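Technical note accompanying the year-one report. For the benefit of new consortium partners, we illustrate the data format agreed upon in the data management plan: each record pairs a sequence with a structure-token string. No post-processing was applied to the example shown here.
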Amino acid sequence: IEIHCRSIYLEGLLHENEKKISKKFGIFKKNWKRWNSWLAEKNLTSIEGSLNFIYQKREFFDNIVVGFDNIGQLAEISNYKFKNANFNYEKFHINNNKFYKPNFLRK
């Protein structure tokens, strides 16, 4: 049995400009602000931040399935090098079960 990790960008939401995020995600606006501020502070793109998080958990799965919107994102994902830094992602946890349902994440 192999375990594959997917939707590591929350169906692309982690890449979205917070002004373009659907109103149904408005209750999570502070989370996006915190995410974007943290990325800027660490000098990471949303792709790097997401990949680094999932790489820190790699003992739990065999492969990662990723999506991309353009060739630039594909290149960034393909060229990604894990940053061996123990970034603390706990501050981004959303304690709302609705958020983790796949149908809710659909744009």
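Partners are asked to follow this layout when depositing records. The first helix runs from residue 29 to 42.
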